[in-house]
Amino acid sequence: MSAAPLPTLLVVPSGIGCERGGYAGDALPLARLLAGASGCLVTHPNVMNAASLYWSDQRIHYVEGYALDRFCAAELALRPRRGRRVGVLLDAGIEAQLQWRHRQVADAARASLGLEVGPVVTTDVPLGVSLRLGESGISWGGLEQPGTLLRAGESLVQAGAEAIAVVTRFPDDPDSASLAAYRAGGGVDALAGAEAVISHLLVRRLGIPCAHSPALAPLPLREDLDPRAAAEELGFTFLSCVLVGLSRAPDLIPAAEARATDLHPDALGAVVSVADALGGAGVLACAERGLPVIALRNPCALQVNAAALDLEVMPADSALEAAGLVTALREGLSPSALRHPSRRLG
Question: InterPro entries of this UniProt entry (predicted)?
């Protein structure tokens, strides 16, 4: 008889250039592996979104980053859903032809995948996304019209949307050195920081699942493209994976209103995160509550590790080792019993 699921949290921070998880859904294999090892995985859109590609798994809960932090702080519980109505929010700054491409993705999701999508709302004015890279190389960004974004989101909720896929026009810079490095597999995703700002704003105001998809002009063909960046260049939009993820995203329930059947943060049994990026609010909240933290070696632009934070962690040199540790915890095995040589107690 197999052991009961061990709800596990997977965090791969966006915009910090992770070797795995810093590109177009390239942490999906890790998420699928951990879902199999744990039987129940909670993670965020940055892990699951692979542009034109997606993978639906009922064992994986798709939770936006701001909501994920509140879940880890025991402020929210998650209520699984079989399906939900996903509204689409389009930035008025997207050109007419590119807007039509996104509307056609929404139609295709309804016709080919059977998802409940709609309505589609366009903002009153362009949102004005800006992109920046910090001195450390981490990406971030801003929004000129946050009020317009929130008003459009509220109108979607009033029209019956239970989740929001937001598409904003991002600046094109096809000749930039940072983009060339990213496409070659050596840079930071310049879009990720601004994407997080947009989704955080909506979830914080509306309290429903939201995820972001950037609108960009297609790039010229590059034959030596890194496979981790390839998913972003398969079509005209990145919207399909967002619609699939949101269609089964769990409800965000205030902890005081949670039911016994909801997934409460107290049920979490382990956290897997990037060994050099352990300083996020969600991971620290879980560590403070005594949850086992598995620190996966995954080079990035940060150096916020267990030693810097004075945290006790379980190191994992690979995805396979991280999955093995989760399996051991699920089976009630002490990971130290599986390491050799064994140490005497006295």
Answer: DUF3326 (IPR021763)
